[in-house]
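Here is the promised in-class demo. Please do not try to memorize the tokens; focus on the logic of going from shape to residues.
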């Protein structure tokens, strides 16, 4: 049983926001997936009925988690990480393909997606490794070790293919900067992304020319402050140009057609009117209808179960990645803003609690939770609003999905558990 002292140390603001988001999610899943004449909420064969089961299991899991001794979380972090890698590798042998990606294990009523579990274990493994008293972030061996921890699950997810989920692991890099990771890696990463986008948008010639011009300007500006070595500067330029030339190979050979279509639509790459028309009827159709559905809600919304575009199935699979469009139509700007505000307050509160930790493992894991939840939240909202390409990122605790509900809950409440026990076990 939980003692009164331990109950008082639980951060009830985080718990309250969690319950609000879960309730909002279920109501909108019900609205997006129920028939014209809504049936019982306990129809277990329906999407909303299944989600209610997952929510119930999640609540039981939270209770069981608080009965667990906190020290076991840190102790078994490495084992859990290795297990998740084995499960990811096993998909290539026994995985189930859904929507073109072999990312699930079929377990009858429940399709288990191990990449969701791997997000948690990667954050735990990172916290476990960096909390070692002998770790020095300035050492190259440490730097490459933490990159490998992040990279391994991503490399197993990309070939499924599921590049959207693979991106989530790279967000854990932001955790490292709080612990003294060199900012050079951040600038290199951002530079690589910009180079990739510029090459797709304007071609190798213009992107390479831009690299040469920008590199020259930065070199002479930096030379005034630092003692740059010409060979290193030239090496950076050569690698940048080589990277620009490799973009087409990555785009054509690594990405699938559905991924290319999304980037083509987002960056306005396609000029062939027939191909563009085809894209707009598939990938572009979802984004366009999502935007129109949100716009139709106005300020106050049309009311619960009154969304005509939601009922008309204008947005395919609206209960999953595009669930925010249901919120926009039925609850309007007020409801949409409430969800955005709740997520924002949750992330700020998690940051406050992470900074309050005196135990390094707790703090690092807390930042891992912020990175994972924050990336999902920002990318999904940007995707639904048409600001970012569609890459299959769900809205945490709101989008339909058993794996998502269970593992987002576990991700969050592992930290709530660590935070609630900080005085009794760590301070």
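The designed amino acids, position by position:
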């Amino acid at each position: 049983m939980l003692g009164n002292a331990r109950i008082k140390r639980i951060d009830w603001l985080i718990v309250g926001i969690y319950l609000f988001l879960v309730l909002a999610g279920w109501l909108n899943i019900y609205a997006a997936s129920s028939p014209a004449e809504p049936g019982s909420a306990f129809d277990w064969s329906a999407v909303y009925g299944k989600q209610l089961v997952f929510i119930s299991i999640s609540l039981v899991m939270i209770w069981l988690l608080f009965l667990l001794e906190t020290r076991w979380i840190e102790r078994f972090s490495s084992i859990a990480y290795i297990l998740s890698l084995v499960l990811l590798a096993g998909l290539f042998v026994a995985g189930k393909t859904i929507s073109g990606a072999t990312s699930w294990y079929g377990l009858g009523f429940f399709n288990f997606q191990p990449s969701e579990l791997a997000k948690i274990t990667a954050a735990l493994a990172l916290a476990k490794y960096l909390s070692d008293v002998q770790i020095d972030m300035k050492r190259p061996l440490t730097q490459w070790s933490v990159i490998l921890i992040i990279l391994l699950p991503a490399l197993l997810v990309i070939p499924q293919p599921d590049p959207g989920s693979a991106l989530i692991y790279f967000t854990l890099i932001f955790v490292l900067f709080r612990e003294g990771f060199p900012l050079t890696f951040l600038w290199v990463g951002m530079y690589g992304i910009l180079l990739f986008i510029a090459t797709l948008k304007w071609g190798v010639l213009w992107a390479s020319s831009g690299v040469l011009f920008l590199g020259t300007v930065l070199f002479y500006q930096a030379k005034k402050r630092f003692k740059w070595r010409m060979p290193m500067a030239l090496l950076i330029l050569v690698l940048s140009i080589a990277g620009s030339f490799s973009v087409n190979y990555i785009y054509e050979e690594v990405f699938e057609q559905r991924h290319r279509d999304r980037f083509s639509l987002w960056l306005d790459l396609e000029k062939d009117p027939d191909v563009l028309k085809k894209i707009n009827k598939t990938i572009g159709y979802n984004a366009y209808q999502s935007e129109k559905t949100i716009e139709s809600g106005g300020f106050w919304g049309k009311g619960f179960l009154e969304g005509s575009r939601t009922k008309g199935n204008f947005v395919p699979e609206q209960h999953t990645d595009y669930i925010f469009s249901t919120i926009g139509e039925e609850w309007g700007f007020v409801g949409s803003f409430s969800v955005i505000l709740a997520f924002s307050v949750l992330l700020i509160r998690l940051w406050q609690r992470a900074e309050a930790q005196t135990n390094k493992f707790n703090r690092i894991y807390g930042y891992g939770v912020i990175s994972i939840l924050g990336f999902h939240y920002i990318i999904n909202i940007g995707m639904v609003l048409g600001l970012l390409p569609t890459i299959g990122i769900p809205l945490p605790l709101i989008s339909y999905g058993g794996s998502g509900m269970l593992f987002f809950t576990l991700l969050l409440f592992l930290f709530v558990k660590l935070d609630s026990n900080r005085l009794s076990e760590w301070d």
